[in-house]
Amino acid sequence: MARTGTTAVVALMPDAEPLLRLAAEEDGRAVRPGVPAHAALLYPWLPADEVDEARLHRLRVALPVGPVRIRLAAVERTGGFVGVPVPELSRVADAVRTAFPAQVPYGGRFGPRPPVHVTVALDAAHRAAADIARRTAAALPITTEVSTLHVVGLTRTGWQGLAELPLSH
C-alpha cells in the first residue's frame, strides 16, 4: 500500500474508465476509489517533498516529443490482477526510468523493466477476476492518445495532481 508523500509519473487514460466501471460492478473492492484509469510509467517516483522544478525539468527534457497513439487490445490476468498492456508507452516509460535510474519501478517487485499497463482490477476474488477479464476483453479494443503525462502525489485525502508534462517541448 502506498504511503502519504509517494509520487508517481502516470499517463491518464480517460477512455479506459469504462473498464474500471465494469470491474467495480463485479467487485467494488478490486478498483481503488478515486484513482482514475491510468498507466504508471514510474511508481514510486520521488518523495513529494523532493519534487521540485529541477527534477520536473529533468523529467520534461527526457520525454519523447509528440502524442502517443494507443490501442488497448488485450487482457492479462494473474490471480486477482486484471490489466490491459500498453506497449506503445514502453518507450516513454524507458525515458522516464532512464532519467531517474535510482527510482526502481514498483520497488523491483516486477523486475527492472516491468511492462506498462492499465490496472483494471487488483486483488479481486478469483471468480470476480475471471468475470472482469472476460468483460474487459469484450469491451476492447479502445483507441486513444496520450499527449500529457502527470505527476501525482498521495495525500491524506487521496491522489492529487502535482504537475502536467506535455509530450511536446
Q: Could you characterize what this model shows?
A:
The longest helix is centred in the C-terminal third of the chain and has 14 residues, at 126-139. The chain has helices at 17-26, 53-62, 90-99, 126-139, and strands at residues 7-12, 38-42, 68-72, 76-78, 81-85, 117-121, 142-146, 148-155, 158-166. The strands form three sheets. The protein has a four-stranded antiparallel sheet with strand order 2-1-8-9. A three-stranded antiparallel sheet has the order 4-5-6. Strands 3-7 form a two-stranded antiparallel sheet. The protein is an alpha+beta fold and 169 residues long.
Low-confidence stretches: none
Order the strands across the largest sheet as they lie in space: 2-1-8-9
Please count the beta strands (DSSP E, at least 2 residues each).
9
Strand content: 25-35%
Measure the end-to-end span.
Answer: 34 Å
Task: Please give the count of helices.
Answer: 4
Proportion of helical residues: 25-40%
Q: Order of helices and strands, N to C?
A: EHEHEEEHEHEEE
Large-scale geometry: globular
Which secondary-structure class do the elements indicate? alpha+beta
- C-alpha-based Rg, rounded: 16 Å
Largest β sheet strand count, sense and barrel closure: 4 strands, antiparallel
**What average pLDDT do the residues reach?**
94
